[in-house]
Amino acid sequence: MTGKGLKRKLPEEGDLPEGSAVQKGSGLYCTQRQSVLNISLDKYNRGQKLLEPSLRRSVLIANTLRQIQEEIRQEVSHPGTPQIGSPPAAQISPLSESNSLKESLPAPAPPSRLSMENHPMGLGDSDDWTLLSSEEDFSLSSAISSLLKELDVAIDGSPAPSPQRTPLGSIENLETEKADKQEPCKAEGKHGGCRPSETAFGNLEIMSSSYLRDVALDDLFLDIDTSVYERDAGPLGGRTLSSAASDEFLKYLPSCHPSSFSMNPNARDLNELEHIMEILVGS
Amino acid sequence: FCLSADIISTVEFDHTGELLATGDKGGRVVIFQREQESKNQPHRRGEYNVYSTFQSHEPEFDYLKSLEIEEKINKIRWLPQQNAAYFLLSTNDKTVKLWKISERDKRPEGYNLKDDDGRIRDPSTITTLRVPVLQPMDLMVEATPRRVFANAHTYHINSISVNSDYETYMSADDLRINLWNLEITNRSFNIVDIKPANMEELTEVITAAEFHPSQCNTFVYSSSKGTIRLCDMRALALCDKHSKFFEEPEDPSNRSFFSEIISSISDVKFSHSGRYMMTRDYLTVKVWDLNMENRPIETYQVHDYLRSKLCSLYENDCIFDKFECVWNGSDSVIMTGSYNNFFRMFDRNTKRDVTLEASRENSKPRAILKPRKVCVGGKRRKDEISVDSLDFSKKILHTAWHPSENIIAVAATNNLYIFQDKVN
């Protein structure tokens, strides 16, 4: 049985040591995970292009994708855990607490928020979420997956992160900067005084606004939305009809549409967008 | 050079072991028959020769979905012999067929109104009554389709299994299992349905199913998540609730991104005794006691050296290969295939195992198979082969074991190998 005694080595192309031999949270693990994510996305899309994709294969690949996405999502919502890294927990946790964030969002509504609400994918509460049709479900999933794909692009483009950083590590980086500019929060824990949360929310809002001024959020969402309608022309390419079985399944599972890749590959923006998407999804 | 239509996709001995059927990707079935032992040629003890060849399934086109239905034979199952003819079920992705294979070694000759060529005799030449007499002729083996069980499966059929009552059988696809009466083709009963109301929620598919060898109300089906459900048809008409649920808890030290994929069960087989069942997942074969649901009683490593290569095997799709497994007649030895045309046998009593290779270069007729060994790391001994030299395109997915003797059939891509235990 391989595993603990294996000496870690840099992953060679296509030949990664088994995941359990690598400590979870390390850079190597995240590289492996990213690699598996890419392979899975590619595999899944190619599989769907076949006339009759094997249902078993599609399900297994989709489950692998979900597992990885879930892992990444959990790391984002609980960055205080060892997986992410070292910044002060107090600054991070209020920011990433989905509940508190949800409370803050409806209050002062930046222009971005309105546009989000107008858009079919803009959600205020979880009730709306459950009413989503499978088509919109699909577009959110495709958004998430395309974002994850974009993260990969961003990671590749940016300088090599230090071993402790996860692909989403730059969020905490940003938080620290902003917090320093505002009033540094004392590490009182998230309930310690109102100052830390307010400051954190203030951080978020300021960041959101600036982010949203920088990037045309409408266009981003339009991109994703378009991908839904253009589904048939996209990864499914030249297929005129598809089998009913895989068609139903296909609606749900993520597919990477080329148009959504045309987003600004700036790592910071993407991380924030990812973050916002997380909130919308109600992670 | 290998024609893809010749790739063998299933191998199955009949209940006596006298016949061996193979199905291929081109929809053909080839049946081999064991030669009778003859005193004149004692060294030709029980060799298998071609007995019958027929086209079982043709490629079809589903006009509604604009899809071609493959003619590849996924499974063959024999019915027990009840008269002079042989019956087997063969299936592709969508349609099961019952074939009757019968011999004809006599021919009626001397018809009254027509001559032996079939031409009508000139009535003026008929002066006496003559009754046809059966005359011997060269043996002719005919295969005729007796039943066609169609239009019952939306998804791809992966298994068929004949019930011990010999009246019914089941066919299983990715999401449903149907029960058929062998006599009735226009109706089947759905006994398992795991299709979620919302296909978005689909995370598990059925991978194999089999009837218990003696309890005609009991069957099992395995899933892509490494679970086996045993169902009792007496309890419910729709067996969505299982009587028993077999699953081994995951070993946390072995967890990887591919844990679920490699836990997917590719084959499940009851032992002949009916007390145990065996499952094959990507890296292991497990033997389960039907009375113990929480873990298998035995686990055999087929090719654990692949555990560190899972990512590559995922990339090249090999991780999705579906290997079958078989019991020998006494349930003491189990066999399954691997890569590089290797196949493995595990003796359950002595706990010894052996790796053998099915290849033309290494097998001359009546040569003894030499055990092979895969070298995992460090120094490679002379006869060993290193993991990186394994040929992953040469996979042995289908094997069969004679019901009572030590004769095995191994399908290596488009070649069939039959090995016998050498006595003396």
TrEMBL record, chain A:
Q: Which InterPro entries match?
A: E2F-SERTA_domain_protein, SERTA_dom
Q: Where is the signal peptide?
A: none
Q: Where is the SERTA domain?
A: 29-76
Q: Where is the composition biased (Polar residues)?
A: 93-102
Residue ranges for the region (Disordered) are 1-27, 75-116
Q: What is this protein called?
A: CDCA4 protein
> Which organism is this entry from?
Polyodon spathula (North American paddlefish)
Q: Which gene encodes it?
A: Cdca4_0
TrEMBL record, chain B:
The record, for InterPro entries, names: PP2A_PR55, PP2A_PR55_CS, WD40/YVTN_repeat-like_dom_sf, WD40_repeat_dom_sf, WD40_rpt
Gene3D superfamilies attached to this UniProt entry: YVTN repeat-like/Quinoprotein amine dehydrogenase (2.130.10.10)
Q: What's in the keyword line of the UniProt record?
A: Repeat, WD repeat
Q: Which branch of life, at top level?
A: Eukaryota
Which PANTHER family does the entry link to? Answer: PROTEIN PHOSPHATASE PP2A REGULATORY SUBUNIT B (PTHR11871)
Q: Which family does it belong to?
A: Belongs to the phosphatase 2A regulatory subunit B family.
Could you tell me what this protein is called?
Serine/threonine-protein phosphatase 2A 55 kDa regulatory subunit B
Q: Give the source species.
A: Polyodon spathula (North American paddlefish)
